[in-house]
Amino acid sequence: MKKRTDIPDFSGKKILIIRLSSLGDILLTTPLVRTLKKKFGNIELDFVLKSQYEDVLKLNPYISKLFLYKNEKSKISELIAKLKGNRYDAVLDLQNNFRSAEIRNAVKAENYIFDKRTVDKFLLVNFKINRLKDTRQIPGRYAEAVPIQLDDGGLELVTENKPSEVLRGKHNLIGFAPGSRHFTKMWPKDYYEKLGNLLTMEGFTIVLFGGREDVPVCAEISGNIKGSIDLSNNDDLLQTAAEMKVCIAIACNDSGMMHTACAVKVCVLAFYGSTVKEFGFTPYKNRNLILENNSLTCRPCSHIGRERCPRGHFRCMLQITPEEAFEALMTLIKS
């Protein structure tokens, strides 16, 4: 894909941004959204995303209008008809897949397309040929599509929610976000439990965070950590964000919850298993420590995660011990 080198003049222009999913990926677009709005004050920025992720940008002050994508043929046709009627000057396709191409081609405006580095990811996963050593984090790579220099701010997630009453008067809160869509991106449940109990003995209170799919694992872990508080919910992202804000740190996997914590400016301890930092999905402009097993030649085995360890040993996660995590978390909190 040929890279653009000249920054376009978007002053007074109507721009459509496409990033349909998922939680973390959409949060990672927010530095670009903010930078564009601040550089071109009279720009109009509309955004297309899947309806289940509406809360990510619902209160974002730099977005003019959100368009919700629903995976139904009749709804797609309606959405495209609305977008075509808006007569956009440019489309920023930060998804770059079949569906986003369908939308951008229908809109018929100047295209700016995110380079997914598909070949490079394939080479790293399958042949351990690393052409991503010096690659930028994903927000920077989104910006390369324009191209534009991002501001110094981090991710952004605006919520007007208040923390739950159960947190009132509580101090020394440390959040755990143990969920992930893929098994190989999840630090083991019993490790979270042991870490939680180590922290509890030091006077910390553990708070469990997660969405609908994470409720069972959060309940299990909470049940085995004395005094912990389970605040996993039915995908109420803005409530989760409000409650993360009162924590002093979040321990999590490489997941959307990690980026959520970064977006509300809480430091994170992140566990990386089957994925690696070179893919670019690391905590962005937020205090963090990443724990990963760099001794393994089988990493990465996927750029998104797997349902099981292909080698059967799962050492990428099993060899990151709760004791190591405890020491790292203490270092992070005191830094």
Structural account:
With 335 residues, this protein is an alpha/beta fold. It has two domains: 14-144, Glycogen Phosphorylase B (Rossmann fold), CATH 3.40.50; 165-334, Rossmann fold (3-Layer(aba) Sandwich). The protein is 34% helix and 15% strand. It has helices spanning 23-27, 30-39, 54-57, 73-85, 98-107, 118-127, 138-144, 189-201, 215-223, 237-244, 256-263, 315-318, 322-334, and strands spanning 14-18, 44-50, 65-69, 90-93, 110-113, 173-177, 205-208, 229-230, 249-253, 268-272, 288-292. It has a six-stranded parallel β-sheet with strand order 8-7-6-9-10-11, with helices on both faces. It has a five-stranded parallel β-sheet with strand order 3-2-1-4-5, covered by helices on one side. The chain is globular, with a radius of gyration of 20 Å.
Q: Report, as a whole number of angstroms, the end-to-end distance.
A: 41 Å
The CATH architecture of the largest domain: 3-Layer(aba) Sandwich
Tell how many strands the DSSP assignment holds.
11
Lateral strand order in the biggest sheet: 8-7-6-9-10-11
One letter per element, helices H and strands E, the order comes to: EHHEHEHEHEHHEHEHEHEHEEHH
- How many structural domains does the protein architecture include? 2
CATH topology of the largest domain: Rossmann fold
- Count of runs of 4 or more consecutive helical residues: 13
Name the helicity range: 25-40%
- Form type: globular
Overall radius of gyration = 20 Å
Question: What is the subunit arrangement here?
Answer: single chain
Under the CATH scheme, which class of the largest domain?
Alpha Beta
The secondary-structure class comes to alpha/beta
Largest sheet: 6 strands, parallel
Instruction: Please mark out the parts with pLDDT under 50 across 5 or more consecutive residues, or reply none.
Output: none
Task: Output the CATH homologous superfamily of the largest domain.
Answer: Glycogen Phosphorylase B
